[in-house]
């Protein structure tokens, strides 16, 4: 028996097969672009995630000789705004964590809620990065679509619905949706959602990361090649799963995750620094992280020069005199 994992990343979807001892057996990935229809915006078509995930599952299972799969687990990029209808269809492109359009909504929340109160409840400062602030932009700027929305999903939620018919999330994802998630009480905050005119029933139910949330449906079996009835585990944010995989579970340990962003992740005590990003680990305890753009910067630089092969870009970079090495600038309004 083996285990299959699906990760919906910013630049690609990855599907892996793991042996019972936890060692990696096989993996495949498929990439897709980040679309930027306006300055400061970053979007993706959620349908591309499912197309990639289902095709990768079929290909990987065939390559492995269709071994019996004991369980499936999920992870994904966060925080996002992915409104879906009752049939799981996305109502607009996903608003990604990179997206900065909700800066005016962050300013409004600072005036109406106050940064100190936001930190007390959610553990985080008010910024366009966080999921709840993006949701407020969506609620105000696209009210017709909001009225048609069944759930405001994360990538993990969207994937879970396609596999099991359940639109749920876990605490690590929910914690990234400040200020809507109460980090003290581990739940959606009714008072904050009321202030933002967000309906609680449009937010996904929060389940423990280790909980079985459903089984592979017949339709999902047809599309993925997985057998119907295989249990699906909720999983968590890609950052929290990376932290777990690196063995960082308790305070005093840490993990470095490099992808589209570079994150230093530290399991935390109850008191956390609001200048960091604060959420919950897969263990249910606090998890703090600091991040900067990593792979996304390479993509940006390649675009400036006509998207040359990475090998050519590396060769050109190697010829830069050492005296200018170390210079950097902020990308996507990043703190420096």
UniProtKB/TrEMBL annotation:
Pfam families: FGGY_N
GO MF term (any one): kinase activity
Biological process, per Gene Ontology: carbohydrate metabolic process
Keywords noted in UniProt: Kinase, Transferase
InterPro entries: ATPase_NBD, FGGY_Carb_Kinase, FGGY_N
Entry protein name: Carbohydrate kinase FGGY N-terminal domain-containing protein
Positions of the Carbohydrate kinase FGGY N-terminal domain: 2-245
Annotated source species: Anaerolinea thermolimosa
UniProt family annotation: Belongs to the FGGY kinase family.
């Amino acid at each position: 028996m083996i285990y299959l994992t699906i990760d919906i990343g910013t630049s690609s979807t990855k599907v892996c097969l793991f042996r019972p001892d936890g060692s990696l057996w096989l993996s495949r990935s498929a990439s897709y672009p980040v679309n930027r229809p306006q300055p400061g915006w970053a979007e993706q078509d959620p349908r591309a995630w499912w197309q990639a995930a289902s095709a990768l599952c079929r290909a990987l299972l065939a390559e492995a000789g269709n071994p019996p799969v004991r369980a499936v687990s999920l992870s994904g990029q966060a925080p996002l705004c992915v409104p879906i209808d009752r049939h799981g269809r996305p109502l607009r492109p996903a608003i990604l964590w990179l997206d900065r359009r909700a800066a005016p909504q962050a300013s409004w929340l600072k005036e109406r809620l106050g940064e100190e109160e936001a930190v007390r409840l959610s553990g985080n400062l008010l910024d366009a990065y966080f999921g709840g602030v993006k949701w407020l932009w969506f609620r105000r700027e696209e009210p017709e679509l909001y009225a048609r929305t069944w759930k405001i999903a994360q990538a993990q939620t969207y994937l879970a619905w396609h596999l099991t018919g359940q639109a749920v999330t876990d605490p690590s994802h929910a914690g990234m949706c400040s200020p809507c998630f109460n980090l003290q009480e581990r739940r959606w905050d009714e008072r904050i959602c009321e202030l933002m005119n967000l309906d609680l029933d449009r937010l996904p139910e929060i389940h423990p990361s280790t909980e079985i949330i459903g089984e592979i449906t017949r339709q999902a079996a047809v599309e993925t090649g997985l057998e119907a009835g295989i249990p699906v585990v909720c999983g968590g944010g890609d950052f929290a799963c990376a932290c777990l995989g690196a063995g960082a579970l308790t305070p005093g340990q840490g993990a470095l995750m490099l992808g589209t962003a570079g994150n230093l992740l530290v399991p935390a005590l109850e008191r956390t620094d609001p200048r960091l990003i604060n959420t919950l680990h897969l263990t249910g305890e606090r998890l703090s992280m600091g991040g900067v753009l990593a792979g996304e910067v390479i993509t940006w630089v390649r675009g400036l020069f006509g998207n040359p092969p990475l090998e050519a870009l590396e060769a050109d970079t190697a010829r830069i005199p050492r005296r200018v090495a170390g210079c950097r600038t902020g990308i996507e309004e990043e703190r420096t």
